Amino acid sequence: MPWSQQLTIQMGNSYAGQLKTTRFEEVLHNSIEASLRSNNLVPRPIFSQLYLEAEQQLSSLEGNRADNEEEEEEEEEEEGSESSSPPVSYQVKPPPEGCCTTDGFCQAGKDLRLVSISNEHIEVPSGFLLVGAKSPNLPDHLLVCAVDKRFLPDDNGRNALLGFSGNCVGCGKKGFCYFTEFSNHINLKLTTQPKKQKHLKYYLVRNAQGALTKGSVICWKGAEFRGRQSSTSTCSSTLFQLPESSGLSGSTSSEPLPPANPSAPAGTQQTAAAVDHIPSTAAFSSAVYNGKESPKQQLMKNNLSALTRPSVLGTLTNSGPPKKRHKGWSPESPSSTETWNLQLNPQASNRIKNDGGSLSSLPHSALVGPASSPMVGSGEPVSVPDNLLKICKAKPVIFKGHGNFPYLCGNINDVIVSPLLYTCYRNSQSLSRAYEQYGASTIQPISEEMQLLLTVYYLVQLAADQVPLIEDLEQIFMRSWRESHLSEIRQYQQAVPQAFPQLPSPITPVTSAQLPWLAGLAASSCNDSVHIIECSYSLAEGLSEMFKLLIEGKLIKTNYVVIICASRNRAIDSCIVITGKYQARVLSESMLSPSDYQKEVNYQLVTGKVETLGSFFSTLCPEGDIDLLLEKFYQENQGHISSSLSASVNKPTAVNGAGTAVCTSYEIERHQIRPFQLAVAQKLLSHICSIADSSTQNLDLGSFEKIDFLICVPPSEVTYQQTLFHLWHSGILLELGLEKEHLTKQRVEQYVMKLDAEAQIKFKIFLQNSMQNPHTLFVLIHDHAHWDLMSAMHSLYPQTELSSGLVDRLLNCREVKEAPNIVTLHVTSFPYALQTQHTHISPYNEIHWPSSYSNGVDLYHENKKYFGLSEFIESTLSGHSIPLLRYDSSFEAMVMALGKRFPRLHSAVIRTFVLIQHYSAAMMAVCGLSQMKNYTSVETLEITQNLINSSRQCPSGHGLMVVLRIPCIPLAAVAYERLYNVRERLALEDNFEIILGNPNSGITIGKHFVEQLKIWQKIEDVDWRPQTYLELEGLPCILIFSGMDPQGESLPRSLRYCDLRLINSSSLVRTSLEQELGLAAYFVSSELHTEKAVVNDVLESDPEKLSSTDNEDEEIVTEGSTSEKRSPMKRERSRSHDSASSSLSSKASTFCTESSPPQVLSNSTEETTNNYERQKQKVDKGAQTTVSKHLPPVTEQLDMKQNIKSTQVSITSSSSPPFSSSSSSSAPAHNSFILQTSQCSMTKASKQPPIVFLPKLVYDIITSTDSSGLPKSSSLLPYHSVMWASSFRPLMSKMMTCTEQSLYYRQWTVPKPIHMDYNNRSEGRMDTFHPRRLLLSGPPQVCKKNKIGKTGAYLQFLSILSRMLIRLTEVDVYDEEEININIKEEESDQYYHQPGDMWPDLESFKKMPFDYTIHDPKYEDASLICSKLQTTNSEDKSKSRRQEDMYTCRQTTRMRLSKYAAYNTYHHCEQCHQYMGFNPRYQIYESTLHAFAFSYSMLGEEIQLHFIIPKSKEHHFVFSQPGRQLESMRLPLVTDKSEDYIKSPTFTPTTGRHEHGLFNLYHAMDGASHLHVLVVKEYEMAIYKKYWPNHIMLVLPSIFNSAGVGAAHFLIKELSYHNLELERNRQEELGIKPQDIWPFIVISDDSCVMWNAVEVDCSGDRKSDYTWTERNVSLKQILQHIEATPNVTHYALIGMRKWSSKTNSAEIKEPFSCCHVHDFIMLNVDLTQNVQYNQNRFTCDDVDFNLRVHSAGLLICRFNHFNVMKKQIAVGGQRSFHIKSKVSDTPVSISPAQYICAPDSKHTFLAAPAQLLLEKYLQYHSHRFFPLSLKNYSHPVLSVDCYLNLGPQIAVCYVSSRPHSLNISSSGLTFSGLLLYLCDSFVVASFLKKFHFLKGATLCVICQDRNSLRQTVVRLELEDEWQFRLRDEFQTANAKEDRPLFFLTGRHI
Fold it and tell me: Are 1423 and 1725 in contact (CB under 8 A)?
């Protein structure tokens, strides 16, 4: 073997397919282990392990894959040849002159391609077979050849004679003795030595239509195992069948089936292309089991010797692999030879071949109808007898079991062969694989003998009317294997195994010799239901014998024939033949796809095959044809009936006029949002926000201004109109601003798209709108999303419907996937098909309908109770007197009998015709033809009688709706026509309507009924017609509901009966079943338990229940879900579902009796007593205590029923005219009110769920449960176009939530090639989820006139999403008037500038006095600053607010963000992505940390700061060249002028606002270059860096972690001045003067959001006249304007106003003010070099600084024409400081009075800075220190060198002790107090003695420690004028280590 090939093997087997992590192995093992430990459910954490963590990447394939199947097989044959030498080049002999050399044609010019001659007659000599040859030049074609079968191999790949003998089927030339010669003749044009093994590939067979198609692969030597493989389609949830989901309808794919393995390594056999996604269910797949490495790979990886492992292959290992490298060979791979080829369209071959090889890949239409081709087999052929179907009355279905299967020939159209059972057998072999990862090679799979024996056991216990289910068999194998290996399993679960563990002795297996005997023994007890045939040589003899017995009629009682060929020397061969007529019919019909099912039915109707059925019905009626009876009845009763009808039905107004009550049950509910819907809408919004908040940047909600949407619905006209109706009445279009007031239907239609042929036009407009409006968020709502999930690729076949695949083409198109402004919302009640391994929807983006109750608590206070599938099933259990799910046994019996009589008719045809017959007979019986009651069933009679009588029971004529579900549209048309004619003949056309509900058309009803509906609904529109089923509420009608699947049509509340007896019961998938039952889903009023029904609805009960209690109806509705708790007895299935359980006499006499009233009293006393006892038991249990629920006394009950009976006599008796209106007169007077008030049938129907009739087969599946109590239907295959990933899967559990079910399906299902998600795969699993796609699933709520359902929920979602987007584009900004306006300076009337001046004049400005008064409204609670004796009385500010409350109490206004706004971290738009550093297209922004140190004498130490500088911002800084040390921050020149950048660096101190701070200044600066530095505390550095990676950070030293904003301002200013000095020195070397360096910085709050400019127009007549307007401008414009101010460097501080909507002209008449500036300032660090911020301050530090600057003689200028808007931010800032106890961590409210205490006291210390406690205490309790100052504004407190807020009731006067400082004139002022705060050496005794104080004035001295306190008192000679007491000393409530502040108080002497 060449080294390269050895290397290939090693890599292929040991490394290929390995997982990137072992996570999946671990979780899968845990899942398996838990499922084996558990008897009933999968432990919940399994799913979260797999899907709720990030480690969910599946492995991808390593190694090469063949491009197509042919290349694979060619390589196999090359590698399988005897020689390993390189191929010899081959010289092609030149063809004779003039001959044809075209590929696909022989040299005689005749076409040999299979697609061309498949329908031609080809003569094949005896002993020859037709085979398909492969030409390398025509990879997509087969060339037809006739070859002597002696030169072809047998089924084992042996016994082929050497040499060749063949004929050309084109020109007819015979006798080719050499394959070389033959290959030249058919123009193979080979470049290598021709070999028959290499080029003769397939047997060719005829299909049912006689067309020649590709059969199985020819098994040449070395391919033995291919002869024993079969389809890899996983076991579907079907009746031994793969309906449309697998396509095994006797037809086959055009290619052999590959091993379906999602991660097969290069070392496994790949026999078709594109198979890497099909999961392996084969028993011995050697590669990966469900994504996990195979045991072989595990062993090789662990360097364990393969020789130590006994083979798990058993008898299968005797034929070895090919001698060459193993690529393409695996002894454990499924075979491709058991698939057959039968196509309607030979041209489809090329298209189908890459579908993954599975039959499931075929489109529905590519599957053949009931006539099926047998599976190509091996050995001696078996002839199928002629007339088999005619004799047996059914087509036998042959399921291949184990081993080889013989050829079938002859009348092969009368049998159906399926490999499904064999696939199931192979799947069960994989059970032991889970434990082989431990080296546990001794755990053997279940043996073939045991499989077959268990199958026999299973078949034996099936009842005569049951059909085998493949799921049952899988679970039997699973349980058997678990039990037989329980000890081994436990051993491997409990301990880590050794390499060679000691194992117990294995259980004695069943041998092949024992098998036939044991099987026969098992079958001996079943009364010949299962027949065992043992054959000694091959299955052929057993099949021949079986056919013989069938022909002879000896298998009449036999439903299943098991044929076993067992031998000691080799493995067993087996097959199972379904011979039971019922079972064979169901199984064969189940193999039809839905489209083929419709075609077959249509064919039988068109060709007249059903006429025999009609003639048979006519023979049943003793009086002749029913039509003749009808005609006779019509002639006899025409006049009489019409008059009685007009009296009783057509004139409800007459009844009303008589004074009786009019029916008030017809209420038109207003559109209202239910609690459920609001909850769901909010959950949807929450998910949208989660997508937007994620770091993936997939949805930028901040960039959208409005919402638009498009709702996609299935192509049902009713659903379309229904959605339009909901949309119109919801008002959502007006609310979103999409439409104006006068809405037209044409405008509404723009927002709903029917998925039909015209959809693409509307969708194209939608896409164009989304591209043209990038700032609009488009929501694409896919309603009824489980409909049409076909792949667009597969919908291109000509046979498919036009609309199929449309969802994939539109919703999955590239434009939708890539559009950043389109969110797709899938809405469905059946989400299972969207929850596969390849789904587009992330599990985190699923929203499930909320549960109404949690631990018994009503979560949503909903007055409606949902009645769905589980509640319907609940009603069938004992304790419920009226089951809502029923089946009709007499109907089923008649169908079964007719099925045997008419074997060629499809059962849907038979069932439909029988049901039409029953309805016709029932109508005739109710109308008086009582003899017809024997030709209908009790159930149908009940429906019909209640329907016809319903309108009579209501004074307004309201009636019931009956839904008759007929999926097949042609059959529905037949039913409609027939029932319509019968109704006309019986003169019932005005009594009830018959409506044909075709999904492709609207609703058509008679004019009479339209008028009735208009009266009821108060509609005046003359042209009005009902367009939805909801609008038929109250109309008595039969709605024939057609279409293969419901498409979202809602039904009205008057629905009473849902007749589903005609649904396709053979195609059992969960979605289909639940969809059909969803038609009856209902919301009923949950208040019903408080009501008491007056009378029982006798007409609507089964015969058994006519004497039951009178509160049954409420019991069903309100107690269905709680009865299990109430019932003291073990609950069993009620028998009342079946008419067969009632006696024949009651059946015959209950309805429409001729001479006696209904037998309502039969056994009534006994039954009532029993019921009473049962109720008594319930009451005794304590669960039912309501008095109204108790039964009336028995005598009253009987009396009441007697009254009911008497009211009913004339209705049901034929002795009086039908529909006699006099019946009510026979009722006693005291009961007359009943008919007027409570007898309206629609009222009753709307308070009760409908009654549902099902086929028996479906009923059994729905009502049976598994071990966990879960309905069997839940464990069926979820959808047609998906399949199970493995048969080794845990059972679903009843306890699973919707989320867990979703995760279950995501783990255990994979889409088939026809599914639109099939190709959604990539190596990283997370990559396959579309980020903007959501799934909303909720229960089906079809009867939703009150719109409780999902439509209302998603419309509400659109509403709140729109409101949120508007809210995102708006902010709450502070909107407060300036305070203290009335306190004016004497010079305030003088104006120094004109209103229109752009800049201040320096000289004029110097003359302006400083306004000490604070006008900023945020300081409303601050102390007033007095500049002189107040000339006006200050307002009383006693109504102060707590500082903590100011943020919530301050007045705000909501403003729309402008394009110049500052943003927080939630804003992401294309323009500022690079600025923010988040755009994934750019490299992640790297930052470097730089230390920057400078000394500051006041602190007495060196200050070391750190800069975090992103790479993109390094150009703003200067670094030393060798070491890259930070030297300085670049500063521009005063003379620089540029429109492109801002000269002043901006510093923003911030804390606690990493998300909400407005640091994105890109738009505010209008894109201009600027330097922006965030000043953050050290402990917050990491979080700020995470959110703002592209921002420069200045990190404060750790000692400032608990400091306030004063520290940040102090360090910003000192750093900036130090940097100014550095820049002056640096640039001085470049020749620039120091004074030319720009000295300003900007200090901005982190809540400044927008800036405005006032434009003044002074063009009036007089100079003083002016007008002004305010507009939003960019910060760039404002800063550049201020920076351009003349002589700007002479100003120390420049600021602007705070915005207020109440600004008046007087405030801006003077364009500039000399006053306090706040929030957003430009600071001249050069002029203010000697003026410092107080680094200790937490509040009012800007006021304090302003006063210091002014007292230093510096200019403070406020531009009144500019203002800043400040956003209200509820987190961070000052609120980040919490004062709490240092002792206890429990949050206890601490009042400000506790912030100080006496020194050395035992007061509770607080964990807060001393300065903060001081400031807060003085703000709220300074009156304790300054009692004379309280509200004494004429005598303020003198504050030296500082401003502290003493609260709004105390005024202060600021003075500076610095020499040459500007202070107010204090002459004439007498102060009420003195505040000395940390006074320095400038404060001296002589300075203080210049001021005068009131007698009794108080002093407060504040120092750092007690020693300083005493020194200050002595130094300032305070004791001369002030009196001190020991008890007047205080400290802040800090521990000693926290350095408290101390203060001393005294009184003026």
Answer: no
- Return the structure tokens found at 239: 């009746």
Cα 371 from Cα 600, distance rounded (Å): 11
**Tokens describing residue 865:** 């109770």
Dihedral sign for Cα 641, 642, 647, 650, please. Answer: positive
Give, as one character, the DSSP assignment of residue 441: T
Two structure tokens written together for 217: 């692969």
Q: Which helix (H) or strand (E) holds 1136?
A: none
At residue 88, the pLDDT reads: 47
Summarised one tens digit per residue, pLDDT across range 1318-1359 is 888 754 444 678 999 999 998 887 544 445 588 999 999 999
For 929, the 3-state DSSP assignment is: coil
Residue 507 structure tokens: 């259980």
Q: For tokens 């039959």, name the residue.
A: 359
pLDDT per residue as tens digits for the range 1247-1304: 888 999 999 999 998 898 877 778 888 888 999 899 888 777 778 888 888 999 999 9
Cα gap 680→783, rounded to integer Å: 15
- Can you give the pLDDT at residue 873? 85
Specify the 3-state DSSP secondary structure of 1622: helix
Beta bridge partners, 1944, equal: 1901, 1929
Q: Which residues on neighbouring strands pair with residue 1529, listed in sequence order?
A: 1517
Q: Is the dihedral of CA 1302, 1305, 1308, 1312 positive or negative?
A: negative
DSSP E strand boundaries for 218-344 = 288-289, 292-293
- The CA distance from 1080 to 642, in Å, is 34
DSSP H stretches of helix in 1120-1272: 1123-1126, 1144-1149, 1164-1181, 1194-1212, 1232-1237, 1241-1247, 1256-1263
| Nearest one of 1746, 1725, 1810, 1792 to 1547, comparing CA atoms | 1725
Q: Is 234 in contact with 1283 (CB distance < 8 Å)? A: yes
For 1204-1228, the pLDDT digits (tens) are 333 333 333 333 333 333 333 333 3
Q: What is the mean pLDDT of residues 1352-1377?
A: 92
**What span, in angstroms and rounded, lies between the C-alpha atoms of 1070 and 1081?**
16
Kindly state the DSSP code that residue 1030 receives in the 8-state scheme.
G
Q: Which H or E run includes 852?
A: none
Tell me the whole-structure pTM to 2 decimals.
0.65
How many angstroms from the chain centroid is the CA of residue 1295? 20
Which residues lie closer than 8 Å to 1180 by C-beta, 6 or more apart? 1128
Enumerate the H helices of 221-343 as residue ranges: 295-301
Transcribe 682-717 into DSSP letters. HHHHHHHHHHHHSTT----GGG--EEEEEEEE-S-H
Angle at 1591 between CA 1585 and CA 1593, to 5 degrees: 65
Distance of CA 1060 to the CA centre of its chain: 30
Q: Which helix (H) or strand (E) holds 1798?
A: none
Say if CB 673 and CB 1352 are below 8 A apart. yes
Question: In this structure, what token pair is assigned to residue 1369?
Answer: 């584009």
Mean pLDDT across the chain? 76
197-222 pLDDT per residue, tens:
878 888 898 887 778 888 888 887 64
- For residue 358, give the nearest of 427, 420, 408, 283 by alpha carbon: 420
Please, where are the H alpha helices in 52-155? 69-79, 114-117
**Under DSSP, is residue 1032 helix (H, G, I), strand (E, B) or coil?**
helix
* Pick from 972, 955, 1030: nearest CA to 1233: 955
Q: How far apart are the first and last CA of the chain?
A: 116
Distance of CA 1043 to the CA centre of its chain: 27
Q: What does the pLDDT look like over 433-475, one tens digit per residue?
A: 544 544 445 567 788 889 999 999 999 999 888 899 888 888 8
C-alpha distances (whole Å) from 1712 to each of 425, 1389, 1707, 1721, 1758 are 93, 14, 10, 14, 5
Q: In what order do the strands lie in the sheet with 560-565?
A: 416-418, 397-400, 573-578, 560-565, 530-535
3-class DSSP assignment, residue 1141: helix
